[in-house]
Amino acid sequence: MIQAPRGTRDVLPSQSSRWQHIESVMREECRLAGFHEIRTPVFEHTELFLRGVGETTDIVQKEMYTFEDKGGRSITLQPEGTAGAVRLFLEHGLFNEPLPLKMYYLYCPVFRYEAPQAGRFREHHQFGVEAFGAPSPSMDAEIIALGAGIVRRLGLKDLELHVNSIGCPQCRPSYQEALREFLRPRLPRLCGSCNERFSRNPLRILDCKVPSCQEELKGAPVTLDYLCEDCSGHFEALKIALQKLGVPFVIDTGLVRGLDYYTKTVFEMIAALPDGGHFTTFGGGRYDGLVELIGGPPTAGIGFGLGMERILSVMEGHGLFEGERSEAPGVFIASMGQEAALAALTLAQSLRESCLSADMDHAGRSLKAQFKYAGRLGSPYVVVIGENELQSGKYTLRDMQSKEEVALSPAELIETLKKGALR
After folding, report:
1. Residue 285's domain spans which residues?
2. Are 256 and 153 in contact (CB under 8 A)?
3. Residue 379's closest CA among 366, 362, 360, 363?
4. Domains in the chain: how many in total?
5. Buried b (16+ CB within 10 A) or exposed e, 340-363
6. Rounded CA gap, 399 and 383, in Å?
7. Comparing C-alpha atoms, which of 328, 301, 294, 247 is closest to residue 139?
8. What integer pLDDT is reported at residue 54 of this predicted model?
9. Which residues contact 48 (CB under 8 A, 6 or more apart)?
10. How far apart are CA 412 and CA 72, in angstroms?
């Protein structure tokens, strides 16, 4: 049997309502905050990610799905959402519109070749928000509060916001040099990846997950001690704004995120797992130089990404979907005989055109089996169409909870159901 490729995941009919639930929460929270949806291609020219994501990142060096198309062009399946959003912003001249421009993307397929693990797949999906043209720390706070509001509304608790500032191109070089001086005698004890990062981008070493490397990093200089006046003031204003919004946070001087384009603010929202562990619900930061790097005018930017599969996995682990049922048709139409089946088909269509959900039997079941099937679906009402109903022109509407029945013409039946049926 052909199976789905390793690192991918099917969404079954019984699971789709969970996706729809979190998507509806995300859409509503974005609407309330003035963010508008965008959709970008699944694949882009490889150069976009080389310039945008950064050639020193693990994503570009190890994880991208890159291929040459029939025209000889290098194409890459998108490994993250921000670069595509920036390309869209530039290609369509959105920088000429009144700024800030606030956008979000939902169910965005992301492809990374890495070892599949719990909540992380080679093809997964991201929800993300991006804001362009707003350099103020108040936008940082708004973006963070939006993410926090979404995960809280989804039912996650024991949340902890981690924030840091990694400076800007003006103040970061002095920090990088201090970090190199600290790390140089420790290089023999660092992993191969950290040794590669040492000369190209030593900040990436702070993001290494190898336990022995983390041990060597104890006592390393922190970015906050090397911030310029502008970056320091920005970070202080962000902390005040978060306090005003009632969003608690901890300063995490080891937080740098894994992409080269971040400047100033970086953040992650950490949630507790049922087994006592922790995971990042969403993370992001400011990228004030990215638009210019990709070929546009100097434009401030900030955003975050949230892995849909990971958030669903954690919600399932916390039992937040227990007792749920797939949405049942409001009316199930049971029929007996070929003529009655055609009448059922016509009635089902009329109900749907009246914005009432309806289903019927297509398997030739007995009347008893049809009632049993309607019960399994959870339909609150069953309409019976048999020989007597066809002769009288009135169908039997039954309330599955109270067992009350009433005979109604098709028009009367639709009006009754619109008004709340028999309850």
Report:
1. 16-171+227-317
2. no
3. 360
4. 2
5. bbebbeebbeebeeeebebbbbee
6. 9
7. 301
8. 73
9. 76, 83, 84, 87, 294
10. 65
Q: Are 143 and 304 in contact (CB under 8 A)?
A: yes
- The answer to whether 134 and 300 are in contact (CB under 8 A) is yes
Q: Which of 296, 412, 279, 304 is CA-nearest to residue 351?
A: 412
Residue 287 lies in a domain: yes
Instruction: Choose one of 258, 283, 317: the last residue of a domain.
Output: 317
34's CB contacts (< 8 A; 6+ apart) are: 102
Query: CB within 8 A of 136, min separation 6: which ones?
Result: none
Q: Which amino acid is at 334?
A: A
Q: What is the pLDDT of residue 392?
A: 95
Residues 380 and 280 grouped into a single domain: no
Predicted pLDDT of residue 48: 92
- From residue 52, alpha-carbon distances to 48, 250, 294 in Å are 6, 29, 6
Q: DSSP string spanning 314-350?
A: HHHHTTTTTT--PPPPSEEEEE-SHHHHHHHHHHHHH
Contact 136, 99 (CB under 8 A): no
Say whether both 231 and 375 belong to one domain: no
- Position 423 in a domain: no
Q: Token pair for residue 110?
A: 């992301």
Q: How high is the mean pLDDT in each 10-residue block of the chain (423 residues)?
A: 91 91 96 97 93 75 89 94 96 96 94 76 94 97 97 93 95 92 92 86 85 91 95 98 97 84 94 83 94 94 94 88 76 96 96 94 94 94 95 95 94 90 54
Tell me which DSSP letter residue 34 carries. Answer: T
Domain boundary among 317, 341, 376: 317
